[in-house]
Automatic annotation (TrEMBL):
Entry EC number(s): 2.6.1.5
Function: Transaminase involved in tyrosine breakdown. Converts tyrosine to p-hydroxyphenylpyruvate.
Protein's gene: WBGene00110073
GO biological process assignments: dauer entry; L-phenylalanine catabolic process; L-tyrosine catabolic process
Recorded metabolic or biological pathway in which this protein acts: Amino-acid degradation; L-phenylalanine degradation; acetoacetate and fumarate from L-phenylalanine: step 2/6
Transferase is among the record's keywords: yes
Annotated protein name in UniProt: Tyrosine aminotransferase
Enzyme class, broadest EC rank: transferase
Amino acid sequence: MPRKQLQTPAFKSEVRQDQIVCHLKQEPSVSVDEVIDWDPLPVSSHAKNTVNPIRKIVDALSVPPNPEKSLIKLHLGDPTLTGKLPPCEVTTRALVEAATSHKYDGYGPSVGFLEAREAVVERYSNKNAPFTADDVILASGASHALQLAIEAVADAGDNILIPAPGFPLYMTLCRPHGIEDRAYRLDMKRGAMVDLKHMESLIDERTKAIIVNNPSNPTGAVFPKEHLEEILKIANRHHLTVIADEIYGDLVYDGAEFIPIAELSPKVPVITCDGIAKRWLVPGWRLGWVIVHDRFNVLGEVKKGMIALSQKIVGPCALVQGALPTILRETPESFFDNVKEVLSANASVVYNSLRMVPGLHPVRPHGAMYMMVGIDRAVYGDETSFVQGLIKEQSVFCLPGSAFSAPNWFRVVLTYPEEVTLEACHRITEFCGDLLAASPLSSDVLIDGDVSPVLEDEGCPVADEIDFDSGSSTESGEPSVESRAISPV
């Protein structure tokens, strides 16, 4: 039977398409000379205090690249942009099947579909860190998972310890709520391990949690078991929750081993924040999760709070939730092995190339997707000028360390094809050679082939307000109270 046509109501006069277009393009009816008695609406303090340091710093790097050289973007932590690391076919097929099934077109529970949460349990729960689907809250990416955790554990006036160098979003998530972010040092002379003394010195009665990022963005450090246990001892002594940012999880290489901190923590409650963005190479899909490891019900009220907070976004993307069980169960290990091989190869290329450049001090990573490179200020100036010059002269875009509270460093992304990484290293070497040739220090301080650092502290000053050159610290060598906080970007 032919389908019956819907009857539209008749209008008194026809409206032509050209009349509609004319109406849409019509000028505003208010004259530019007309005055209204409205005052400008001020922005909320919450919005005004929400600042992403990376965005601010990237905007300040607005210099034109060299038009004669192709642009190499070593600053973006998005593995999809390089063309070398596409997502697994299993992952994309799972999303297509979820979409075409039409089972996930509607709203789901704010904490996520049960089958998706059970898939997280199936993959990550074990005898050392057991949990159930009731301990899982799905989020719109790991960044949203971090937001849930931070907002649930701390109030205005409280403080949370964060790493420096570290992911700047920690600051962004704390400050609009009046939560103080206190930065503990990562010792770049010791492979970016936590300065445990400094960490503990920052704790007071308003400290609510310690954020531990392992593997680390931006350093690429992977914390060994013994180091994680020392962090847990501090947390246990002061009854502090650990918020574990483990988005890079098993993304380790060159013999490193990733150990989830919750597996070492029978007493200290751990809120793990994770997701599919980095290891499954789909950061735009925006699906992450919170796992509450809490054997003694210390976080019972906090978990209720995170469930309440999850209702703000009415749950993450239903389609990706529908695909999640297949993604977690069926992605072959060979896919992850290939990603690790690319990262390891690029890390070797960058490290072996830049360590031979006078005044540059790369720290070899063993996880995540990045490498930090220290620069000697006496030779190259500050890191922002260095990065700007690198863009202008060589069309290589790195991210200055100030984006991560690490002045005198820059970060390199390791996700490009190896030939592109080699070309980038060649250009960085050439750029440094030109600067050295023009520098009066090149003959007085740096002997040909000498890669020893010019600055004290091995050219790698720690990212805080202490001026190591002037020696402004307490007699004990520990930073003074006034200098503990990282200065905001």
